[in-house]
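Please, structure for the following, as tokens.
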Amino acid sequence: MRILPDVAVQPRVTGPGSERYVRSYVTLRFAIGVLGLALPFLLVLVEPILFDGQPFPRGSLSAYYYSGMRELFVGVLWAIGVFLVLYKLTEFSWESRLSTVAGLAVVLVALFPTGRPGDGVNLTPLQDLLGEATVERIHFIAAAVFIGSLAPITYFFGREEGKRTARPGRRSGRFWRAYHWTCTGLIAAAAALALFAGITGEPDKGLLIAEAVAVWGFAASWLMKGAELDVLLGRG
């Protein structure tokens, strides 16, 4: 009886007419990596350009829920979350299950905002219904589950990519294993920093830095996992 799921790399579908579907899938996967890399930059750098007199930067990425960038923040999290839930949903593997958990968690992060930056900000209808403290607690738990799921996902990416056979013009599996596992290390370090900053309040903007590094680490791993340029460019 099999206890652990199969995590082997599955061959690319090559049936007649499958090319456009594979290309569409790879394009979506690539776009999610781009969104993840861009999100912290867009929130931190674009807000003061579009909205004068706003704090720069805010204390965390989640705090941008209470900014002029709210729609962008929520929209990108939903896009990432939905794709993560559906990514390999029909496969029974650790990667697919962790991806689903991470996707559900990041959707909850978008639905349940962090605490208000001050009493001058009105409660959302959800905060008014459940209580601000309850909503914030759900937000923090979901954020912790999200970040906690990212590290093992990138670890499995590295394990899979490490098995690939080198081809002319392509880097070796050893390189990609090291690349993805470096991203795993960045996410783990970011999680430790977020925990430390949450307990001690130090360093200044520590939570913002930790969240940005975790998102960048995952996005960098996901982006290169999805960067099958031969498919994206219609060459294979």
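The chain has one domain: 19-116+125-232. The two ends are 38 Å apart (CA to CA).
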